[in-house]
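=== RUN LOG ===
request id: a7f3
mode: sequence -> structure
chains: 1
length: 269
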Amino acid sequence: MSIDFIEIILGLLIISIMSILAFRLRYLDRGGVIAGIVIGSIILIGFGWPALILMMVFFTFSTFSTRLRYSYKRKLGFGQEKGGKRGWRNTLANGGIAASSALANLFLGGEIFFAFFLGAMATSMADTLATEIGLLSRSRPRLITNLRKKVGAGTSGGISLLGELMVISGSLLIGILVVFLEFSSIPLFTIILLTLLGGLIGSHVDSILGATIQSMNRCIICGVITESNIHHNKPTESFKGLRMIENNAVNFLSTIAGASTAAAVLIII
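=== RESULT ===
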């Protein structure tokens, strides 16, 4: 989709204003603001206004789901750090592959890069909703690598019925928005299939990585189990997985998996 100079300037202005507003509302920290402006700008230039709108919808849903019953999640040890504010690492983990797809589309062009974008966005939306809302499930989740084993709420690799419903809903939401915004020549059914399969595979790769190699830590102050490297303003102790593979690394790898799945489906179809 072509976009002229005036539209680019207007888009960059809107991105900057929204990022600063997100900072003022404590949704992003300074690093998150800079990363958000860069990623949003690349997506705008690479795919146009509809793609930017899609990214803004994701950010809105992500922020709302993160803040939903935040104090309860924090007690469990699995609420986002810094009061739910997202930093550059989280922003890059969720939007980096989408931005890379936009950049590739800008210079190379081709529906394959749009498929990568869809898969990445579907994965980010599906995984975020499954994680943040799945934490509120009344039933105990089961470990994805051993479904007979029940685990505590927020355990990496744990899946629940509520979480699975959020995976499907988040994936389909991206597809429906793309169809509604009408910014692709890919047939409606194919778009829905790309986002659904991309979101499903990507989010479940996230769960598998979470259950196997993601670092799980223990707070040295209160003893709570957490994914965070910091708790009570103190470094946590890693007792499982690889210390370098924290939640943002897993998110980044899962978006690659979701993007690759969507691209593979487009090629096969």
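=== NOTES ===
The chain has a mean pLDDT of 88.
Residues 5-268 form one domain.
=== END ===
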